[in-house]
Amino acid sequence: MLIQIHMLQNYAPSNLNRDDSGSPKSAVFGGYQRGRISSQCLKRSIRQSDTFVDAFKADNLLANRTKRLPQLISDALKEMGVDDDVRSAIVTRAPEIGQESKKRKEVVVDPEKAETRQLIFIGSGEAQEIAQKLLAKYEEVGGKKWKTLKIDEITKTLGASLPLSVDIAMFGRMTTSAAFEDVHAAVQVAHALSTNRIVAEYDYFTAIDDLKPSNDPGAGMIGDVEFNSSTYYKYFNIHWGNLVKNLGGDAEIAAQAVSALIEAATIAQPSGKQNSFAAQNLPDFVMVEISDKNIPVSYTNAFLKPIDNFNGTLMENSVGKLDEYAANLRTSYGLNGRSAYFTTSSQTITNAQDVGSLSALQEWASAQIKEAANG
Fold first, then answer.
1. How far apart are CA 303 and CA 322, in angstroms?
2. Axis crossing angle, helix 69-79 with helix 84-93, rounded to the nearest 10
3. Angle of helix 39-47 relative to helix 251-267, nearest 10 degrees?
């Protein structure tokens, strides 16, 4: 079973996701410059959203991406009542996890500052499990041998850990360490692209020194920031079978995860420059498609020719073009999935059920998943 989410969202002037020069990210699509929000930005906003926190944190079903594994291991060993000397010896080796192929450099490690070289997606409770295994290995080989033991000899005997974590199950995990099991993502997230062509705009601004004498002219600082305003098409897909597998076969948590993803993808906002622009705009169109066949289809090509605002708004014309393109694609390829949507306008979508609201769309999706699972 494949679950796909399509949405159209118009943002007021904003700089939600910047490149290395501070400009809003962009891409050339269909031969025209488009606004872009990276998939990494969208995934982080979803993972960090109140929706995910409220749904899964209390049950320890969320993970963190961090380099601070040594500190987590140190904290876990403290809770276990391990002597400081033993704890320090174990934590000294922890920064080497993830770089087993690198030549070891013996250094003094401060547990409060030590970091691994790569970011590691760590599930709740996973650091405690690793700390227990490291302690057992330390006690097995002894303190003297521990200092010279190759890190790959340590990690390969730990056994790869795999936490029960919704965000790892959805978005995957890849590390270069035998201490962690890699997870193939069950969710694919596209870079959001504007349906319209963009032209870069700049805000020239000054800041005044409040304590400067009134007879002393001039600004305390001068600067500028680039921004744009665009109607974005966003696309997500969820491979149900892989999601259930990544969650250890727990279909109930998987169904909750799908519902939470629909909500979070809809209402979670990128944080870039929001204090300056407050572009807190919700989507005006959200559609969910569920099909038995695993044939993911993005409707981005509906916007190869940029949408304009003649005879309607950018949003209205974008919805209309998406509907036209999706209907033609379904006919051409025989795509017979079930579809439901809601929109803030009075527009209708071909062969799709208008459910009227986000909560109703979540309920519809949950019912479809339950029916398919029971069938």
1. 8
2. 160
3. 110
Predicted confidence (pLDDT) at residue 103 exceeds the cutoff of 80: no
- Chain-centroid distance, C-alpha 362: 19
* Residue in 38, 37, 35 with CA at minimum distance from that of residue 307: 35
Shortest CA distance to 167 belongs to which of 127, 116, 124?
124
What's the residue count for the chain?
375
pLDDT of residue 212: 84
Cα–Cα distance measured from residue 3 to residue 237, given in angstroms and rounded to the nearest whole number: 6
Question: What integer pLDDT is reported at residue 220 of this predicted model?
Answer: 85
The number of angstroms, rounded, from the C-alpha of 26 to the middle of its chain's C-alpha atoms is 19
User: CB under 8 Å to 232, separation ≥6 — which residues?
Assistant: 8, 9, 10, 11, 35, 37, 192, 193, 194, 195
Residue-wise pLDDT tens digits, 228-241: 999 999 999 999 99
pTM for the model stands at 0.91
H-only helix segments in 108-218: 126-141, 143-148, 151-155, 166-171
Domain boundaries, the chain: 2-61+184-195+230-374, 65-164
Please tell me the distance from the alpha carbon of residue 154 to that of residue 13, in angstroms, as a whole number.
Answer: 52
Find the mean pLDDT for residues 168-188: 91
* CA distance linking residue 46 with residue 59, whole number of Å: 18
Q: According to the model, what pLDDT value does residue 4 have?
A: 98
Distance, in Å, from the CA atom of 29 to the CA atom of 9, rounded to the nearest integer, reads 18
Residue position matching structure tokens 């025989």: 334
C-alpha to C-alpha distance for 289 and 5, rounded to whole angstroms: 7
What's residue 113's pLDDT? 77
Pairing of strands 221-239, 2-14: antiparallel
pLDDT in tens, 286-318: 999 999 999 999 999 999 999 998 999 999 999
Q: Is 194 helix (H, G, I), strand (E, B) or coil?
A: strand
